[in-house]
Amino acid sequence: MNKLKQRATIKDVALAAGVSPMTVSNVLNGRMQYVGVATRKRVEHEIERLNYRRSTTARNLRVAEQRSIGMVIVDESPAFLADFFTCQVVAGLTNVLNVADYTLTLQGVPMASLARSMIVRNYEVAGFCAMISGPSTERNGVIQLLAGLEQPLIVFQEELAGPSTDICTVRQDDRGGGRLIGDHLLARKVRRPVMIVPMQHWPAVENRVAGVRDAIATSGSEAELTIVHANSESFADVQAAMAGYLDSHPMPDAVIGANDQIAVAAMLLLNERGVKVPDQARVIGFNGFESHRYSQPHLTTVLSPAYSMGECAGRAMLHRLKTGAFARKDEVLPVVFENGVTT
């Protein structure tokens, strides 16, 4: 029996739930005015239990090809689009797809809700893009789930071990950027750097931390990197984490933000406490989006090609849909170090 026949159909869901196929269709398409609450919950339970996902075969008999790409952002924060990096990636991806007359269907979802999300279970798209937060084992589980949908998949900011069938990774050189930061600070005799990172796991941040540690290890320096965890990337949480560290430890000679907004929040706290930046403590960020130019003093940072990553992903997906294969399985874009005027 082939794989297509093994998949649950809408009739299977209807039979299991004790309803008509039309009722299942109403639930799938959000026509809840025609479905009672108890019936809806019963249908949704069977959809999940049977691992039903709407087949595109019937629809493809009516239209020549899918003209939409799905993007899933696995993020615990409901404000998942507040992040500058995410917005730039989405903008670059959308604009490439727009030119090719494709749309982008975007959904932010917590890890625990992904398997039940509408975009994964039911939405008809030609391929998926994904940006995933969480511990590495959980991120790998998400990738396997999305790969199991048997559609082309692009994953941002991940490095995948081993061969992958229909998956392309698009990422920037975060580890290299971390090494640039480490080299910059070590050349200025920094010995007590602190790096502020959010509690939420992001592969990019993990690589930035690893890059700074690479630079220290390679140099043979006695410098020791201390990691300070903030509950989130918010201004209040970063300042609370930084204040807690300063109240119980000696003043670091450098503060590295996992991104620019973290670095700026730390810099403002140092200013409030009368610490002169960069004379008494250097501050470095990561990403280099336009907002970092408003800091005073001007922030040293690593410039991210986030918008170009989105464009790269869009081109890679269009090539895959046209030719049947990704041109490259791993696209890595370089980063650039920008030394601030005074930091």
CATH class assignment of the domain at 174-303: Alpha Beta
CATH third-tier fold name of the domain at 174-303: Rossmann fold
Mean pLDDT: 87
Largest sheet: 6 strands, parallel
Measured by DSSP, the beta-strand proportion falls in 15-25%
What's the overall geometry? elongated
Compute the CA-based radius of gyration: 23 Å
Q: What structural category arises from helix and sheet content?
A: alpha/beta
Give the N-to-C terminal Cα separation. Answer: 65 Å
Summarize the structure.
By secondary structure, the chain is of the alpha/beta class. Helix content is 42%, strand content 17%.
Commentary on this structure:
Residues 8-63 form the HTH lacI-type domain. The chain is 42% helix and 17% strand. It is α/β, with parallel strands linked by helices. The protein contains 13 helices and twelve strands. It has helices spanning 3-6, 10-17, 21-28, 37-49, 57-60, 84-99, 118-121, 136-147, 174-187, 203-219, 235-248, 260-272, 306-323, and strands at 68-74, 103-109, 127-132, 153-156, 167-172, 193-198, 226-230, 254-257, 282-284, 301-303, 330-333, 336-338. Among the domains are: 1-52, lambda repressor-like DNA-binding domains (434 Repressor (Amino-terminal Domain), Orthogonal Bundle); 174-303, Response regulator (Rossmann fold, 3-Layer(aba) Sandwich), CATH 3.40.50.2300. Helix 6 packs parallel to helix 13 (306-323) and helix 9 packs parallel to helix 10 (203-219). The termini are far apart. A six-stranded parallel β-sheet has the order 2-1-3-4-5-11, sandwiched between helices. A four-stranded parallel β-sheet has the order 7-6-8-9. A two-stranded antiparallel sheet has the order 10-12.
